[in-house]
Amino acid sequence: MDASVTGGSLGGRKYYFDVVDYSVFGAMLLLSAMTGLYYGCRSRYCKTGEEATLREYLTGSGNMKPFPVAMSLIASYISGVTILGTPAEIYNFGTQYWVICFSVLLSGIVIAIVYLPVFCKLQVNSSYEYLELRFSRSVRSLASTLFLIDEVMFLPILIYVPSLAFNQVSGINIHLVGTIVCIVCIFYTVLGGLKAVVWTDTWQIIVMFISVVVVVILGSISVGGVTEIFNRNEQGGRLIFFNVNPSLYERQSLFSVIIGGFVYWTSYNAVNQTMVQRYLSLPSEKQTRMSIALFTIGVMIFLTICCYSGLLIYATYYDCDPLSSGRIKDDDQLLPLFVMETVGHLRGVSGLFIAGVFGAALSSLSVILNSTSMVFLEDFIKSCLRLHLSERVESIIVKIMVLSLGIVAVGFLFIVEHLGGVLAMATALSAIAAGTTFGVFTLGMLVPFANNKGALIGGLAGALMSGWVSFGGQYAYAAGLVVPHKLPVSLDQCEAKYGVNVNYTEPVYPNESDIFPIFRLSYHWITPIGVFTVIVVGIIVSLITGKTDVRTIDPDLISPVSHWALPAEAHRFAGSAVAKLRRKGQDYDTLMKEITVQNVENKETPSISVINRRRI
To answer: Where are the bilayer-spanning segments (predicted)?
Structure first.
């Protein structure tokens, strides 16, 4: 074997990465590192000897452009898990999941109209800071703690899945490649801050898009064209778009995908710190809405490509299922197998595909490192511990946090393959965090009379309820009590095409009627259940314990769609919440008089931008 070539085993065959593939993959890592170096040295301290401000490091000074921010938003959500998992979902369960694109569109509209205006008004450093302004520090701490636990648990998954794919096609040790990629990500995130993250995400998403499109085009040609692909999928029963089965146990139905998908996407994209931080890196609400529009369209296009890839894979293996024939061990290996068998002979294409998968992983990882460090500083160091530090010390803390989280990701990479429950745990925690925090934010922004006790008890109830459903479902699945019902596959041509003699028996599914009903629910319903619980319990508790006086609430804390529920007196307090938090050294009553006088003189709500310009 040539010294420049290494190989991996996949599907019973040997495939090789040559120097061109490694060069493409290495160029991706090198460009990532150079981006961080560029924006690190582009900061003021490289020009005038002054250190870049913390605000510039964490928010890009609020003067980013819509297009790169939109690309960064896409990159942070479309991870390597998405690229490998979505085609497998379509292959195994049909195209009903494709309807998620409609949910994404609806979610983008709701975010821009309902949630975005509140964050643009307040200009909070951490999205969870809103919960202290609206309710209390306790509610803020609950949400930020869930966020931190969720992100830390998800870190190793982001790197392990693409590292496994790389190992399968190249034979290089999972831990080695994962560690190198993590080090590169830590380097450019620590050095360049949000600007490096956003611009690296931008070209990484372009590489990811190009890699998947190239594979799809070449694969479609090899199968015989789009018409043949759809014909084979129709014969195999994969074309399902209107499954109106009302059962909540149905994995993919029209109702579960649209409703559950909408709630999940909105819960993540509307209030999660990783998203809000980039929304507020833009100079105006108009440009933020433009970025959200580009983000929504981009995600819909990319999900469409991933779903089509699932049809393409089925059209390729319609007469010999790789998993049942023993050619692969896991569904996530379907796309790597397809790439290597279809376009693996073309030098550089495999390297481009792996670079795209890792680019997606790097994008998600860098965003988590950056946003989580900001949450740690704002919600724990400054809010919970109430420490008042210099900007230089805060910058050091943030960078140490990024470095520490990166080390945790590398450390988990060495143990995640031995802990089969890590992925299930991460998935469950993600559902809990998403449902609980989104429910509390929605309660605060859309229900003006909701109070602190309602938010806190509702949040705890939502976390317990979604945790019960999620962990219970994961246990039932792991114990084999609940088994997903995959669509039928064929093994007729395995021996003729691949020389594989298969003794296959049809799967026997367990009787699920004795399983506790809530543990059998489709995963699409977990987040809606959490959100619904938070809102209902929050409203009930607020009514019982005494509603918030809506006459004295700051209208900036309420979504514009709920301003109809506010009396005219409330507008006297516009800007008071954030002003009280920022001007801790000033007497609040004096401040309120100033705001009231300004309202009377201007006959309008005072602009909060004046207050925000005095932020530390």
So the answer is: 20-39, 67-85, 97-120, 141-160, 172-191, 203-223, 253-271, 292-317, 352-376, 396-416, 422-447, 454-477, 523-544
